[in-house]
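During the second half of the funding period, the structural biology subgroup turned its attention to how the target accommodates small molecules. The most pressing case was zinc ion, which had performed well in the primary screen but for which no bound structure existed. We therefore specified the complex as follows and requested a full 3D prediction, including the ligand pose.
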Amino acid sequence: MIWLFTLSYCTLSSTNRMLKKILLAVICLTATIQLSAQIQPAPDRGEGDGPYDKLILRGVVLIDGTGAPPTGPVDIVIEKNIITRIQNVGYPGLPINESRRPHADEKTKVLDLEGHYLLPGFIDMHAHIGGTGQGTPAEYVYKLWMAHGVTTVRDPSAGNGLDWVLGQKNRSAKNQITAPRILAYTAFGQGSESPITTADQAKAWVNQNKAKGADGIKFFGAKPEVMEAAISENKRIGLRSAMHHQQLDVARWNVLNSARAGLTSMEHWYGLPEALFQDRTIQDFRLDYNYQNEQHRFAEAGKLWKQAAPPYSEHWNNVMNELLELDFTLDPTFNIYEANRDLMRARTAEWHEVYTLPSLWRFYAPSRQSHGSYWFDWTTEEELQWKENYRLWMTFVNEYKNRGGRVTTGSDSGFIYQLYGFAYIREMELLREAGFHPLEVIRSATMYGAEALGLEKTLGTVEVGKLADMVIVEENPLQNLKVLYGTGAIRIDENNKPIRVGGVKYTIKDGIVYDAKQLLADVKKMVEEAKEKENTSLKQPGLDW
Ligand SMILES: [Zn+2]
């Protein structure tokens, strides 16, 4: 999502009580980004077992993340946090060949997981660690991610401040907190005392950002000479970058300009239709458009793809092929716009009742101020336009993948009724809808994410020598991605009674085994306590029942 830290914090927080409102208005005028938008950091780790000198996961069916089909049963040996052996131990339907099994001594930890599916840990490429506007403590966000198998996240903008994120990154790396691995991509210009308006200022900020320890930069837009200087300097000094091409700057700097300057990944989709224009140069904005009116912003965006060159036309092909040649990554975050095509689906997702904090629910509610809460006049017409918008967008993304392009999995949760963790699985379903084979979906969620982050030597696949980040689930996720949701998938038992199956069982990060269902139970408790404390329940907008 696009947001401006100080602005969004100020506008969002001031929806609270009167006194707080006045106080915050003062704070908002004076506070720095770092001071104004920090959420509560995660407490010391109380969850997870290990790492073990030797851990053997016995009898799993392996989906390794490379695109290889499932194979099993295999035994996987992990020593401390490294995968040291993957041993085939038999054939489906036959007893395990015990003589082939890796040896366990009395100190070895063994998990018997016969028939379970094992995948690499998931990488969420667009993962804001909550915000004060959402009222989401880091523990809540991390546990929802980890409960859904997410073991690495890229924080695109470091909205809680770079120092804060680096502190959490460091503690996560040492496994002092229950959290995925964290990469910090600072919002361009964050912390700068004055606006960056020249190429020299841009280069100076980029170098400072690296010196502070950031992993990369998240851009939103700026004038061309600043963009050019910042992206190319960042690349020269070896860091990576992501960009949400916001509508205010796309007329003069679109995705092609970024890719040519050396941008690593584009977020969402803005700036790509603009690169595909052939019979116009500016989006056909309604004439009373105002960017600060999000109803305008998102409704007009729903008409954008059909203003671009049609699929498989010459211009469409040329743009795609140039992006492919530049080894450019697409991180579509399909899910975060899904309410645009089906608002009720997003609002009434079954997990909200139990897992959505009341503060987050209030943040989602229709408002002229909160970012992504433009639901005060969302009509059938807008939903239909967005359905068509999705079709054209998905066609591009799927074909990009078919021609060898890297497409990753990012959720952008915490906005527009999309909940951490759950929305990541929804993103997988939407890649599937775009045309990806489930194995291609898993590859996007794992190996391609690691490649896009420059972590492919240690993460992204289940292979000997790599770090032990893994997802274990009782059901086959290729047959039904829904089994990865914390709420599982619906089946019916022999008594004709509906039941749930699946839900990630264990998430392993850095050789430490987390009980994914317990993490979800912790979140459930946090939500119950918050509701009790605030004496509130979840109500749909405008309804008092
Ligand atoms: Zn975002």
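Two results from this model are relevant to the next phase. Residues 1, 126, 128, 156, 412 surround zinc ion (CB under 6 Å). Residues 2-35 have pLDDT under 50 and may be disordered.
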